[in-house]
């Protein structure tokens, strides 16, 4: 019964953006739905970071509900008992609500992607042009199913770092794929033949960013943000003592080595130092790439966005160290990475699409009204 209640909660939340899209006096409703879903997925990724940073991932220690119910309201007695038994533990009413709100919105995103899939297949059957294959939203639906499975394992495997990091990367893969779909159903700026020469460079930038995000996720899931307490050195040294073997051993419990011992500080330093050092490479490359691409009219806005967000990421990353990891700054750092991913996806789409023979998308679709 509680699964039905959970499903209805996700449906009711999704009805808000669905209603907004459908009441708009516009013919391009599918395009608007894709963009709204992309924006809400960005919000979900940021709220997922907030959930992780507030240590609320086990606020409800089962899945998909909370103590077998659809709401912390209903599970109040169990939550109160768990908190009373271990006040410093992962369970509290506040953490339970944070975790369940994250799950509710994830279900709402699922409903929106189901709506996209249905619209795309109906349009295919009725031969209405949406300028996108229905297999795109179908793939998104499959991806969100895999993401949901890793969300469950995140809870059942007690925040095991490799599971949590994979969950984060899958969330960003969902966001990036939605961003590509949004770019695909949006009118392409005027074709500039020189842009096509930058396809490989843009793809390298995206690959570097994904690797850096994975390193950042590994830092966050291992709580290694404060392993280095100064900048630009790390604990007063340019190359401090580090234990890469234990720090980057993937299959282990949170805070433990693969042998079951408590993870040493040197391992956490290795995780932090690697993310910080690789950031220099990524920042230098993305700044150089954006400065080169901003001279093209079709790439100017996303390239300028990359420059702005890279500056934000540097500022928030440094502030996390200097200010001892304040929650708003840490959430902003997570959100900046997600926005940077979207911008790189748009740049990759436009460089890949800027070639002769690609049909321009008209201003309005013939999507169902």
Automatic annotation (TrEMBL):
<keyword id="KW-0472">Membrane</keyword>
<dbReference type="InterPro" id="IPR003780">
    <property type="entry name" value="COX15/CtaA_fam"/>
</dbReference>
<dbReference type="Pfam" id="PF02628">
    <property type="entry name" value="COX15-CtaA"/>
</dbReference>
<feature type="transmembrane region" description="Helical">
    <location>
        <begin position="101"/>
        <end position="123"/>
    </location>
</feature>
<dbReference type="InterPro" id="IPR050450">
    <property type="entry name" value="COX15/CtaA_HemeA_synthase"/>
</dbReference>
<keyword id="KW-1015">Disulfide bond</keyword>
<keyword id="KW-0560">Oxidoreductase</keyword>
<dbReference type="GO" id="GO:0016491">
    <property type="term" value="F:oxidoreductase activity"/>
</dbReference>
<dbReference type="GO" id="GO:0006784">
    <property type="term" value="P:heme A biosynthetic process"/>
</dbReference>
<keyword id="KW-0479">Metal-binding</keyword>
<feature type="transmembrane region" description="Helical">
    <location>
        <begin position="303"/>
        <end position="323"/>
    </location>
</feature>
<keyword id="KW-1003">Cell membrane</keyword>
<feature type="transmembrane region" description="Helical">
    <location>
        <begin position="6"/>
        <end position="23"/>
    </location>
</feature>
<dbReference type="GO" id="GO:0046872">
    <property type="term" value="F:metal ion binding"/>
</dbReference>
<comment type="pathway">
    <text>Porphyrin-containing compound metabolism.</text>
</comment>
<dbReference type="GO" id="GO:0016020">
    <property type="term" value="C:membrane"/>
</dbReference>
<keyword id="KW-1133">Transmembrane helix</keyword>
<feature type="transmembrane region" description="Helical">
    <location>
        <begin position="135"/>
        <end position="156"/>
    </location>
</feature>
<keyword id="KW-0812">Transmembrane</keyword>
<feature type="transmembrane region" description="Helical">
    <location>
        <begin position="273"/>
        <end position="291"/>
    </location>
</feature>
<feature type="transmembrane region" description="Helical">
    <location>
        <begin position="195"/>
        <end position="215"/>
    </location>
</feature>
<feature type="transmembrane region" description="Helical">
    <location>
        <begin position="162"/>
        <end position="183"/>
    </location>
</feature>
<keyword id="KW-0408">Iron</keyword>
<keyword id="KW-0350">Heme biosynthesis</keyword>
<feature type="transmembrane region" description="Helical">
    <location>
        <begin position="329"/>
        <end position="349"/>
    </location>
</feature>
<feature type="transmembrane region" description="Helical">
    <location>
        <begin position="35"/>
        <end position="53"/>
    </location>
</feature>
<protein>
    <submittedName>
        <fullName>Heme A synthase</fullName>
    </submittedName>
</protein>
